[in-house]
């Protein structure tokens, strides 16, 4: 049963986001990166190995996921990467005291529609504090019935679709998975929408 441990598994979306980071590895040294819902932390680990200053985070209510983040760092010789408990939709001292960031990463965080608004309120908060930052996210298309478009509009955010072929992630083997079924992965970059006066 995967749903009770989904932070313990390298999902296909993480592989695709890691591929995007690898394709942009020359721009990563010195960038300040936060991965949300990190779990196994593949994208964050790749960013750190490419020279970014990375902070990994997962829900403060999921200590096993936070431990998985720490273990991934140790296995990849990244013992100094900080791991924070950040729960989507909650303004915590850890969230308020975060240092400036350039890039937020999230692979397959748009999993359960009940979490979508909490995720986007957290992203909005981070982008308001860091107006030039971007949220790089991959997600698996699981249902035609859900969309985040209305929530993006509500929170004054915009998204740009990133075609997988543009960074060599449109290969079937790249996101192969032992999970049953076909995995349609999409990527987008979310940023603050421009205000009327700018």
Helix and strand arrangement:
Elements: H1 12-23, E1 32-35, H2 42-49, E2 53-58, H3 63-75, E3 83-85, H4 93-96, E4 103-107, H5 116-129, E5 134-140, H6 149-154, E6 157-161, E7 185-192
Parallel strand pairs: 1-2, 1-4, 2-3, 4-5
Antiparallel strand pairs: 5-7, 6-7
Family: Belongs to the methyltransferase superfamily. METTL23 family.
Organism: Panurus biarmicus
GO cellular component, one term: nucleus
Write a brief structural summary:
The protein has helices at 12-23, 42-49, 63-75, 93-96, 116-129, 149-154, and strands spanning 32-35, 53-58, 83-85, 103-107, 134-140, 157-161, 185-192. By secondary structure, it is an alpha/beta fold. It starts with 11 loop residues before the first helix and ends in a 6-residue tail after the last strand.
Notable characteristics:
198 residues; alpha/beta; seven-stranded mixed beta sheet; 6 helices; 7 strands; globular
């Amino acid at each position: 049963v995967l749903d009770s441990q989904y932070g313990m598994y390298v999902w296909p979306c993480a592989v695709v986001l890691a591929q995007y980071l690898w394709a942009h590895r020359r721009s990563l040294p010195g960038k300040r990166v936060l991965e949300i819902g990190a779990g196994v932390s593949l994208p964050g680990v790749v960013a750190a190995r490419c020279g970014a200053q990375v902070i990994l985070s997962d829900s403060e209510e999921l200590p096993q996921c936070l431990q998985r983040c720490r273990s991934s760092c140790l296995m990849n010789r990244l013992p100094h990467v900080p791991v924070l408990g950040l729960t989507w939709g909650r303004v915590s001292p850890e969230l308020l005291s975060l240092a400036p960031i350039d890039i937020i990463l999230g692979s397959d965080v748009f999993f359960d529609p009940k979490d979508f608004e909490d995720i986007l309120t957290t992203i909005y908060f981070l982008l308001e504090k860091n107006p030039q930052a971007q949220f790089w996210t991959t997600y698996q298309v699981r249902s035609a019935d859900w969309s985040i478009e209305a929530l993006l509009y509500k929170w004054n955010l915009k998204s740009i679709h990133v075609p997988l072929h543009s960074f060599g992630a449109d290969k079937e083997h790249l996101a192969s998975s032992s999970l049953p079924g076909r995995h349609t992965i999409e990527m987008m970059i979310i940023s603050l929408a421009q205000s009327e006066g700018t």
